[in-house]
Amino acid sequence: MDFAMSAEAEAFRAEVRQFLAEHVDAETIAAGRDGTIHSPALHRAIAERGWLSGAVPAELGGGGMDPMELCVLVEELQLHQAPADALGVAVVAVSMILEHGGEHLRTAVAPRIMAGEALACLGYSEPESGSDVAAARTRAERRGDHWIINGAKMWTTLAHVADYVVLLTRTDPDAPKHRGLTFFVAPLDAAGIEIRPVETMGNERSNATFYDNVVLGDEWRLGEVNDGWAVMKTALKYERGIAGGQFPSPPVIEAAIDWARGARRADGASLIDDDEVRHKLVRAAIDVEVCRSFAYHTAALASDGAMFGVEGSMTKLFASESYKKHCAWFFDMMGAHGLLTGDDPDAHRDGLIEEHYRHAPVTAIYGGTSEINRNLVAESWLGLPRSR
Ligand SMILES: Cc1cc2nc3c(=O)[nH]c(=O)nc-3n(C[C@H](O)[C@H](O)[C@H](O)COP(=O)(O)OP(=O)(O)OC[C@H]3O[C@@H](n4cnc5c(N)ncnc54)[C@H](O)[C@@H]3O)c2cc1C
User: Fold this and answer.
1) Which of 5, 43, 249, 297 gets the most CB atoms within 10 Å of its CB?
2) What is the pLDDT of residue 243?
């Protein structure tokens, strides 16, 4: 077995690193830590470089970048702490539009998102439905050529900076849950849409979005009426694809090593020589290698043209759970000093470990919770009985 990346993928990594050295400085990273994990300048530069359209599958009209290269791109963005949440969302939105959208969405909306001129956000979750996304209640009713939308979405991340929301609605409340859904791509400046901030403990800003008699022409419909679940399957397919790369821990481990080198135990010994600290640092480094193997394996499957499903769940599950564990270990290792937040001049590395400690739990919620992913692994991989 050869675990090394191909020469092409490594050459691409060098190209990405050079690009990031030019486009991601301390200011860009700091702005991304402010709540909205998005940098307009960086997003545009990535699009101009052709990596956004490149990430869209070729069969849909995108650049069809090799999944290994896409994995390298996501890995390097995370390792450089580049605020690039809008990239994955854009790729998913464009893929959904190109696979299911009509003329208007394909010609007037998808090219703007691909060029980095417009941003999309995802409006699936609601106050009463997250994991069970098919239970969405936001209502779309047909009136002649138009649709009237009423309802509320929760966790519409990036809505406050986006131009369009990919909106899951219920069009037939009497049909079985998965059969009465229809998607729309709604322009966020439409009358009747309200966006309210939702702050999270990890600093990340999300939104609650409200739809009060929003009028949309039929050209904004995405996919067939009452066949929204088919569109959702496309979304999940591409979301898992882009989420294949998960490398949140390395900056935290690096900050922890740095701290352990400088800190002393009560008996005067350096913390880096403490057995328990060394054990945890090594364990965390091994976990990162496991994450990398999961991600590369998932990307390699996609590269060979295979449709992966549960492999994406395993990657996401292992990455977010180990990231949560690493942050808790290193936060604990720092004792009272670990409590200092980034605005305190004495904070180690601008409070990076403390901040990641607060951020890590949400990664085990969005994009499918750890419990849901465990269910998928149990059912699809281990052959255990269905849980629901
Ligand atoms: C910061 C953040 C950003 C987000 N961004 C977006 C976004 O941009 N767009 C969007 O549409 N959504 C977004 N989400 C929503 C996210 O996808 C949901 O929060 C997630 O799917 C969980 O849904 P829920 O919050 O309704 O919890 P619930 O589904 O109510 O789950 C509550 C708990 O029960 C567990 N549970 C639920 N069902 C099962 C089951 N069958 N078996 C075992 N355990 C179960 C869950 O794992 C969880 O622990 C975001 C969430 C967060 C926190």
Assistant:
1) 249
2) 53
Q: Closest ligand 1 atom, CA of 131?
A: 29
What pLDDT shows up at residue 235?
Answer: 84
For the CA of 367, the closest atom of ligand 1 is 17
- What is the Å distance from ligand 1's center to 286 Cα? 29
Parts of the chain with a pLDDT under 70: 239-246, 307-308, 388
Task: Decide if 183 contacts 136 (C-beta within 8 A).
Answer: no
Which atom of ligand 1 lies nearest, measured to the CA of 157?
8
Please give the distance, rounded to the nearest whole angstrom, from the Cα atom of residue 364 to the centre of ligand 1.
9
CATH topology of domain 243-380: Butyryl-CoA Dehydrogenase, subunit A; domain 3 (1.20.140)
CATH topology of domain 120-231: Butyryl-CoA Dehydrogenase, subunit A; domain 2 (2.40.110)
Residues in contact with ligand 1 (CB, 6 Å cut-off):
121-125, 130-131, 155-157, 200, 204, 206, 362, 365-366, 369, 371-372, 375, 387-388
pLDDT at 310: 86
- Residue 331, pLDDT score: 97
What pLDDT sits at residue 303? 81
Answer yes or no: pTM beyond 0.90. Answer: yes
